[in-house]
Inverse folding.
């Protein structure tokens, strides 16, 4: 029961957002979970956030959540784990209304709001650390959300202030390291992460930040070495620090993918999802591999799950559109591709997928065959304009197919046209007298 409790109470503590390639999954505030979270809680089991701090003297004298608020909170956790974020939001709000000092509920509300792109997330995080001045999850969450929104300097200033107020907090120092890494200050990031580990040698987020920073700096061998220390260890004296750490598994999977180790990446993404069903990035990456091998039936549930945890994930919408295309649901596929391009018209993959859809679909609503092939050509040319220079792909071959198809349609139109009658003979010239 202790293990199940530990995994459940961690379910709202680490990075929330889904990231697109080639970005690195972010640390910070967001749900964490495990495969155990999907089960039914045992009678009498209490699911709540832990109050233990990351350093000496942090996490003491926490007020107990009222019974009424706790009931809403537990239901909210169950809704979150099931991917029902709107209901989780409602239940966490009810918990805060039942107990205005329920700092865990404010934090968890912020996590769900962040996933739902609700502007109230920062306010909820702030309320949590206002109630409890050293409540590290909310402090880190506020700063990381600011950083992910592009305000790294504001996040840096905030965490620097909190570091002065809470010098024994490994969590604050590790979060500052993450912000420095996002700002491409790798030297400061590594130094601060090491400082966090001096405060608390077993603080996992600091270890992950070290690996993530190496990845951002393109030092893949060092990143893998850092991940090995977390996941496997080196010998009896240097054992694995956290063999089932989902964030470490996700990062390792991304590196394996980049190195061309397809099987290793797939296996690692699967392991990450077994521990963290809410990891949108792992779902997207694994679904991509499955689609590439024709496993649309296995890929679609993964993508649909990703959208439950992040309804605005453009990579997930793009993949779901591809699933629909392969299943012959052409209007539904187009709807997904149009959604992605409406959000970001610079995503060249969406133009490619739309061109492929127009080219291969037997018919599209409200489009003639000629309009369809012309739309395919336009989308594929737009893709070529936006794709990275030096890309090698089959778009030229697809454009040639579109050209040939257009020629066939023109020939068919000409063949179907009625044969014009022969011209009337000129009037006979009367004979001369």
């Amino acid at each position: 029961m202790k293990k199940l409790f530990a995994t459940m109470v961690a379910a709202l503590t680490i990075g929330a957002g889904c990231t697109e390639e080639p970005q690195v999954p972010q640390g910070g505030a967001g749900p964490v979970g495990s495969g155990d979270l999907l089960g039914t809680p045992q009678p009498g089991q209490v699911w709540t956030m832990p109050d233990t701090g990351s350093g000496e003297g942090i996490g003491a004298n926490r007020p107990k959540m009222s019974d009424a608020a706790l009931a809403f909170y537990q239901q909210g956790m169950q809704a979150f784990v099931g991917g029902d974020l709107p209901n989780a939001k409602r239940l966490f709000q009810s918990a805060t209304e039942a107990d205005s000092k329920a700092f865990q509920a404010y934090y968890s509300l912020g996590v769900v709001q962040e996933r739902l792109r609700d502007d109230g997330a920062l306010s909820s995080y702030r309320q949590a650390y206002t109630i409890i001045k050293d409540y590290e999850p909310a402090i880190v969450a506020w700063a990381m959300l600011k950083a992910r929104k592009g305000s790294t300097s504001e996040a840096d200033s905030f965490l620097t202030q909190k570091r002065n107020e809470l010098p024994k907090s490994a969590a604050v120092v590790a979060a500052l390291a993450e912000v420095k890494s996002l700002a491409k200050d790798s030297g400061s990031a590594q130094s601060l992460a090491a400082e966090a580990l001096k405060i608390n040698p077993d603080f996992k987020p600091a270890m992950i930040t070290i690996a993530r920073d190496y990845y951002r700096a393109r030092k893949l061998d060092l990143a893998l070495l850092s991940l090995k220390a977390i996941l496997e260890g080196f010998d009896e004296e240097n054992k694995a620090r956290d063999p089932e750490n989902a964030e470490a598994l996700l990062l390792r999977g991304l590196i394996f993918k980049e190195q061309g180790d397809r099987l290793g990446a797939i296996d690692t993404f699967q392991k990450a999802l077994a521990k963290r069903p809410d990891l949108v990035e792992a779902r997207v990456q694994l679904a991509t591999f499955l689609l590439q091998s024709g496993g649309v039936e296995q890929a679609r549930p993964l993508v649909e799950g990703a959208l439950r945890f992040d309804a605005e994930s453009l990579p997930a919408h793009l993949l779901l559109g591809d699933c629909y295309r392969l299943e012959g649901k052409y209007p539904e596929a187009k709807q997904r591709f149009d959604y992605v391009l409406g959000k970001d018209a610079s995503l060249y993959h969406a133009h490619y997928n739309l061109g492929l859809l127009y080219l291969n679909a037997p018919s599209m609503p409200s489009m003639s065959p000629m309009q369809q092939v012309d739309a395919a050509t336009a989308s594929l040319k737009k893709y070529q304009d936006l794709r990275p220079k030096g890309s090698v792909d089959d778009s030229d071959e697809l454009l040639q197919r579109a050209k040939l198809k257009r020629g066939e349609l023109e020939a068919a139109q000409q063949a179907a046209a009625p044969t014009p009658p022969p011209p009337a003979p000129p009037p006979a010239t009367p004979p001369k007298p």
User: Anything to note?
Assistant: DSSP finds 20 helices and no strands in the chain. The chain has two domains: 2-278, 328-388+395-409. Residues 46 and 74 are 7 Å apart (CA to CA).
